[in-house]
User: Fold this.
Amino acid sequence: MRASRDVWDTMVPVKPFLLISTRPEDEAAQGEYDAMLRFTGLAPDQVVYSQLDRAPLPSVDLDGLSGIIVGGSPYSTSDPDDRKPADQLRAERELDQLLDRVVPADFPFFGACYGVGTLGVHQGAVVDRTYPEPVSAITVTLTDEGLRDPLIRAAGLPDSFDAFVGHKEAVHTLSEDAVLLATGTAAPVQMFRIGSNMYATQFHPELDVAGIVQRIHIYRENGYFDPAGMDELIDTVSTARVDHAHTLLRAFVTRYAR
Assistant:
């Protein structure tokens, strides 16, 4: 899918964005990839795609990229290492090594859901299972810092908006260098910023109704909700309106494309 001309005519040529996936399920990985293209407005040739659960991260030249986007994952960073599969341990190690370079450079980074665990843990946040949220649409509320944040302002987000969530772990305590941008009722950290250009959300800005329904089917037995209530859950999420959340991805790409 090509980005709309009104966004990209002033930006070509664009250095690609690195999109990192850690979803071992083929259908989930493909669905996330398609959604990221749709809501960022990026074309396939404007993305370097790394499925980190399947192969090592290729050599990353930050000077050759516009930014980095990390999607969600069934991985939980707070699980004990002896319970993590080998592909998860390698992925976490390589993401940590990448963040060792990204953070000092304040390089554009956007992590959706799993990005909270990766960027948060790298910076010293406490991520645990205190604030899980079942698959649902929740209300996200911007903080005063969030209302002033340039990316959020560029996205045109209202003070409160709905977004899809579904996670077993969340930030319990942010690192001292993090700026809390958005909160929620069940999970108090819904979005934060490190430095000026590195962002992470607990909610999923890439998910629309079709996307969340697909993941409900794929992850039915993964403990995100009671499988016996799947049909009722699908009926509930199908009425959600989460359009505002999607604007964050386009705003990130528009702000950092170079």
DSSP finds nine helices and eleven strands in the chain. Residues 17 and 47 are 5 Å apart (CA to CA).
